[in-house]
Write a structure and sequence with these properties.
The chain has 694 residues and is α/β, with parallel strands linked by helices. The strands form 4 sheets. A 6-stranded mixed sheet has the order 5-6-7-3-8-9, sandwiched between helices. The chain has a 6-stranded mixed sheet with strand order 14-15-16-12-17-18, with helices on both faces. It is 37% helix and 16% strand.
Length: 694
């Protein structure tokens, strides 16, 4: 397929919410071949719904949606995957429908051959592998190999069975972006592709969007990315009769001016309509007076009445989109001169000791790549348990207010916004709704916190910081999910804030408003610079080999063995941005019974080669690259001599042994059969080249 032949066309689309309210009204726009267009708008305006209409997941009530060239989709959840899916599962989920169907057939055939290893199951498995090849599965695996090497530094053969939840959010985003940009789809629909990416990752994305020949429609709130990548802007604006969609034919630099002029035109149209309406009503009054004095004017009086009636039936021009009016009243308060003091502070395994003084009223941006310890530093200052050496203290009257990047607030889950404000802040319904209205959250007052969008959750977190009376704000990526107007409202609120602000951010636009810049370097050194530094590389750390601890050997308890690589990122660095794994926790190679960190599907990350023998009696594992760890309590080894190897038997008596063995067998079957199919294909290819008649 030739590059750049895809397009998207949305024509006069109406869409109603399940409760009957109109969400989109007469939405129309076109993304031409090879164009890179940004889709912007407030949270809840309908951007995600519009994206689902384009992919065909939803159907419009009226109008049409047309696409060509195949549509590749990055869902918004990429970056926050915390289930048991593997890297292979994630890559399959963003592949074409034929690849997804063939992959499911292979998985089903593997499960069937584990349950009954008869000739019929074997033939079905062979057919599934053949269909996988016919669907382009092996070609897709070749592309995925390049993707895993670029995103994770590992070949696909080694990375495919790794659990996605062991990847940082940035690695998940980069992996899917690589797959879509290298894949065959000519139209890409990217929902928040920049979230979780550090600045080098965002710069890479900007370069890719400028260079790609694909047609791209992406949703983003990152103002720097919008300014450097989007050739046009499609804006979704909430309106009384359903969100209005309009197109700005230039880049982001002139978008705000064009939007202001558009609102002025709405006002001008309404003014002209009101003037015309007044003229027609005056004409009717005059004609009535003339008709009372002369019967000859009766016909003209009737004509004037008809004109007025038809004018009023046509109605006034549409109401202008409703402007968001967000007012963040972050007040703060006077504190001691030294708000934060650190002496020889070291977060174990993350950074070298450093000294720091932050004075009252300063705005400090904490910059650096993912995995460098920035989020751990803010959590420590917020009073959360983080393993560290050295000392730190807050100044007199400093009350820290912490904004969590992941919006992880278990105490808010299952509660409505009004309920939270009543229970924790003694605000009755009227006062609560008044506070929520200032943050454009009054319509969500009776919704559960965990049902809100990411941007709405972020705004509610900031409202709680306001009500708590914090005098030092510790903000971890506060603009990640905020729409454009909310981010600008936050900046205005921070300018008026009387207190100290420390913010971890990868938002280059937002960082320009700060006074000091604290850089967490790739070498583990924390330093201060006069200007933002965005080109810090990822921190390189050696992998740790933690011992295996055996927990719970009773009949009703399980033993779970987690692979040594389970909670570190692609280059061995502990992540500080997603899972919240504290560096002092023995989180690699640990065995937990019923803990928070459930066992990963280690069997799906098996290595193909035989492994050196491993001592089991003293619970020691060989940490060589050829180690094979089976989930659910079973450890099987194939020593170099080809013996049966050692085996740790699960004593729970609940079948975990059999499942682990079956899972291992499933992977070995796939490996051997796939290798055989590839060998036959290669042999046939070489014979066909030597003898064209074959």
């Amino acid at each position: 397929m030739m590059a750049g032949v895809g397009h998207i066309e949305v024509a006069h689309v109406d869409y109603y919410l399940p409760d009957g309210r109109m969400l989109l009204s007469d939405a129309s726009f076109r993304v031409g071949q090879g164009a890179v267009v940004a889709l912007v708008g407030p949270n809840g305006a309908g951007k995600s719904t519009l994206a689902r209409l384009i992919t065909g997941e939803l159907q419009p009530e009226a109008g049409t949606v047309t696409t060509s060239g195949g549509v590749g989709v990055m869902p918004q959840f990429v970056g926050s995957v915390r289930d048991d899916r593997s890297v292979r599962d994630l890559l399959v989920s963003v592949a074409r429908e034929g690849i997804r169907a063939a992959a499911k057939a292979v998985d089903d055939a593997e499960l069937a051959i584990m349950e009954r290893d008869d000739e019929q199951a074997q033939m079905a498995y062979a057919q599934a592998l053949s269909d996988w090849g016919d669907a382009g599965g092996y070609e897709a695996e070749t592309i995925w190999d390049m993707c895993t090497m670029a995103a994770l530094g590992l070949p696909y053969e080694k990375a495919q069975f790794r659990s996605v939840k062991t990847l940082s959010g940035g690695e998940q985003k980069r992996l899917v972006l690589e797959a879509l940009l290298r894949g065959p789809d000519e139209v890409l629909l990217l929902d928040e592709p920049d979230n979780y990416l550090d600045v080098p990752g965002k710069r890479w994305l900007e370069d890719q969007l400028r260079e790609t020949k694909k047609t791209v429609l992406f949703v983003s709130h990152d103002r720097e990315l919008l300014a450097k990548s989007a050739s046009r802007i499609v804006a979704v604006e909430p309106a009384p009769a359903g969100s209005d969609v309009w197109v700005h034919g230039s880049g982001f630099a002139s978008f705000h001016q064009a939007r202001a002029q558009r609102f002025e035109r709405y006002e001008e149209l309404r003014r002209r309509w009101d003037e015309k309406h007044a003229q027609l009503k005056k004409l009717v009054v005059d004609m009535r007076q003339y008709a009372e004095r002369s019967d000859a004017m009766a016909s003209r009086y009737a004509a004037a009445q008809t004109r007025l009636r038809m004018f009023e039936e046509a109605g006034p021009p549409p109401e202008p989109p409703r402007k968001q009016d967000i007012k963040m009243r972050l007040r703060g308060g006077r504190t001691g001169t030294r708000a934060i003091t650190c002496q020889r502070l070291e977060l174990s395994g993350l950074m070298r000791p450093f000294d720091l003084e932050v004075f009252f009223g300063e705005r400090v941006a904490v910059l650096g790549s993912n995995g460098s310890g920035k989020s751990h530093f803010l959590r420590l200052l917020a009073g959360q348990p983080v393993n560290h050496a050295g000392s730190w203290k807050l100044g007199a009257r400093v009350v820290p207010g912490y904004f969590a990047q992941t919006h992880a607030h278990p105490e808010l889950e299952g509660k409505t916004l009004v309920g939270v404000l009543w229970d924790s802040y003694a605000r009755n319904r009227g006062a609560a709704m008044s506070a929520l209205r200032r943050y454009e959250l009054d319509r969500q007052g009776d919704q559960l916190f965990d049902r809100l969008s990411g941007g709405q959750q972020a705004r509610f977190q900031i409202l709680l910081l306001e009500l708590e009376g914090s005098t030092a704000l510790l903000l971890d990526e506060p603009t990640d999910n905020l729409d454009l107007e909310s981010a600008e409202a936050l900046q205005e609120g921070l300018e008026a804030y009387e207190g100290t602000v420390l913010a971890v951010t990868h938002d280059r636009w937002f960082a320009r408003t700060f006074d000091r810049f604290l850089i967490f370097g790739a070498d583990g050194v924390v330093r201060e610079t006069a200007e933002p530094v965005w080109d810090e590389a990822r921190v390189k750390r050696a992998r740790l080999a933690a011992p295996v601890r055996r927990v719970g050997v009773g009949r009703q308890q399980q033993r779970h063995v987690e692979v040594a690589r389970g909670v570190v990122d692609g280059d061995g660095a502990e992540r500080d941005d997603d899972l919240g794994v504290e560096p002092h926790q023995p989180s690699i190679g640990e065995v937990q019974a019923g803990g928070e960190r459930q066992p990963v599907r280690a069997a799906r990350r098996l290595r193909r080669e035989p492994d050196p023998s491993v001592g089991v009696g003293d619970a020691r594992l060989d940490r060589s690259p050829r180690s094979t760890v089976i989930a659910d309590g079973e450890l099987d080894r194939h020593p170099p001599g080809g013996g049966a190897g050692h085996r740790v038997q699960d004593v729970g008596g609940d079948g975990h042994d059999a499942r682990a063995f079956a899972t291992r067998r499933r992977v070995i079957i796939r490996s051997s059969v796939t290798a055989t199919v590839r060998s036959i294909s290669a042999l046939f290819f070489s014979l066909s080249r030597s003898d064209p008649s074959i």
